[in-house]
Amino acid sequence: CQVIVHDVNELTEKLFPVVEAMQKHFSAGSGTYYSDSIFFLSVAMHRIMPKEITQIIQVDLDLKYKTNIRDLFDEFDNFPEGAVIGIAREMQPVYRHTFWQYRRENPQTKVGEPPPDGLPGFNSGVLLLNLEAMRQSKLYNQLLEPTMVQKLTEKYHFKGHLGDQDFFTMVGMEHPELFHVLDCTWNRQLCTWWRDHGYSDVFDQYFQCEGEVRIYHGNCNTPIPED
């Protein structure tokens, strides 16, 4: 087993020019902080990792594994043609909220609607990055350009604060074909914040997850069940 440690400052230096333009749309702070770039690492991982690295799994720290992470690598084999990233759906109505203006202007839209038919957005706690596919995808690399980011944020009236997750969610509304949707059991989010903040009537439509959980995600400091 080979472990390679990467210097955060070095990575941030490479990242900043690629993600600087999107930070103002998807960062909690007002403005573009150099240090914030690290929250966009996954977006441009294919640009800063050595060419010989072709696949990466990126995960949050607030996870509990109920199965061998090696099994998750098998999901790379299930990517449809054109898909570059594997990611699970967001399990709260956060994007129902964020896209409120677009939804009001487009009452028939699936944007922000719950699964299985809606587009609830993504959660970046568990990410499968097919770096080779990301490098080769003309479409994906076009979407990283500042003019494209600006165009999409204007179309969807989008202002977020969750970094890479917001970028993937917005791009997924426009180009779902770039994503392989992981089953909710690979990223079983536990946060229920939005249930108590105005969305109790629809919350369970987003939050339900059938099947045996393989990875628990204790997001928003939610305790993870003991075995």
From TrEMBL:
It holds the Pfam family Glyco_transf_8. GO terms for biological process: protein O-linked glycosylation via N-acetyl-galactosamine. InterPro entries: Glyco_trans_8, Nucleotide-diphossugar_trans, XXLT1. It comes from the Eukaryota. GO terms for cellular component: endoplasmic reticulum membrane. Keywords: Transferase. GO terms for molecular function: xylosyl alpha-1,3-xylosyltransferase activity. This is XXLT1 xylosyltransferase.
